[in-house]
Design brief:
119 residues, mainly beta, 4-stranded antiparallel β-sheet, 0% helix, 55% strand, elongated
């Protein structure tokens, strides 16, 4: 069973920084991403990265967040700078794997880590 384990969340003041980590139990994900869900809102895509390093970001975090991955460690990171109160949410790690034999995508989720931006 594939597992994704997030860490690095916490309480930070506006303007501060946090780095989230997501350790995967195996290294076969084609795409890894970070999503977030604030209370009363839908889960939204924050950033994604392919296994060749191509990245994509939500407009709300461009220039402030950076996603990266270390394939040797099966880990994806989200560096979050200039944090704002509206970044407060539970952040989820997501892994997407293409199953060639069945021509389908498999999706895996972490348990989530809380990020709170408040003074």
């Amino acid at each position: 069973q594939v597992q994704l384990v997030e860490s690095g969340g916490g309480l930070v003041q506006p303007g501060g920084s946090l780095r989230l980590s997501c350790a995967a139990s195996r290294s076969t994900f084609n795409i890894m991403a970070w999503y977030r869900q604030a209370p009363g809102k839908q889960r939204e895509l924050v950033a994604s990265i392919t296994n060749d390093g191509s990245t994509s970001y939500a407009d709300s975090v461009k220039g402030r967040f950076t996603i990266s991955r270390d394939n040797a460690k099966n880990t994806v990171y989200l560096q979050m700078n200039s944090l704002k109160p509206e970044d407060t949410a539970v952040y989820y790690c997501h892994g997407k794997q293409w199953i060639m034999t069945d021509l389908r995508w498999d999706d895996y989720w972490g348990q989530g880590t809380q990020v709170t931006v408040s003074s």
